[in-house]
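Q: Convert this sequence to structure tokens.
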Amino acid sequence: MTLNKPYFMLAILILIVEVLIALHLDTGFIRHTFGDYLVVILIYCTIKSFFKTTSKVIAIGVLLFAYFIEFLQYINIVNLLNLQNKKILSILIGTTFSVFDLIAYTLGVLTILSVDIKIFNHD
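A:
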């Protein structure tokens, strides 16, 4: 396992943007939709930073993971596990299901996969 510096730097940059969004925006498109779009790109870049696996495998894995988290929101897992008082876990898991989140995740993964294949010539 070797560090892929360009992906790592991109992951750090996106993490900073995500933190700024979380700290400064409470509502709106940027907070609720664009943040979800970016989070799958963040996860993709983080994985790509440390693992040499095909882009398609990572993209599918990230998308399935994002869908799974959204499913957990759908079944209200935070309340089922009595985690509503655990602020960090509630934020990480999320508490509100939205079909628009699924669309944002899909578009985010398609974007980074397209960039990876077409610009960086990765498979």
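The two ends are 19 Å apart (CA to CA).
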